Amino acid sequence: MGGEMTVEGTVRLGDLAAGPVRRRLTPDAGARAAIAKRLGLEALPELVADLEVRPWMDGCQVLGRFEGEVTQVCGVSLEPFSQPLSGEVDLRLAPEGSPNLPEEPMISGEIEVSLDTPDPPERLEGETVDLMAILAEHLALAIDPFPRRPDAVFEWSAPTEETSPFAALRALKKPTE
Q: For the residues of 29-83, what is the DSSP string, one character each?
């Protein structure tokens, strides 16, 4: 997310030697506007996250919760509306070259997915964990892709006139008497 990063939004793996690191992220108006634009939202009036970064194997685990308010355009009425949003963060990261990273799948190979086992760790580029980027990714997953205001009602009625191509030909034909 580049320019909107703050020192509080990053944790170095070396910082975890003393134990877990807790961060409260409260992006300012500019950072929230950048996240909203990136995620296709009308606005992001509120966003706060409490995250903990713990040592895990040779990488780290990021755990926590976020809460906020998103403003989206209703898919029915096309009017903007706001709604609360919350979610959980549970992500494991392993540095480049770690034996704990999953092997790259072959292009023609199959990937086996099990709902009972935790997700494999993601690749951490460098030694710094970007908590703001992780927050934005998890926020994106929590957003309703088809937003609808609670009071929005879809009203549709079938056209009363016939609109087929044959109706247009019938209109050109003169009635015979």
A: HHHHHHHHHHHT-SEEEEEEEEEEEEEETTEEEEEEEEEEEEEEE-TTT--EEEE
The model's pTM: 0.76
- The alpha carbon of residue 77 and the mean position of all alpha carbons in its chain are separated, in whole angstroms, by 23
Query: What does the block give as tokens for 127?
Result: 């030694």
Q: Which residues of the chain have pLDDT under 50?
A: 1-7
What 3-state DSSP class applies to 24? strand
Residue 137: what pLDDT? 96
Q: What is the per-residue pLDDT for 110? A: 67
Residue type, 11: V
Under DSSP, is residue 87 helix (H, G, I), strand (E, B) or coil? strand
Cα distance between residue 27 and residue 68, in whole Å:
11
pLDDT at 172: 78
At 51 the pLDDT is 97
Question: Who contacts 93 (Cβ-Cβ below 8 Å, separation ≥6)?
Answer: 56, 59, 60, 61, 62, 121, 122, 123, 124, 129
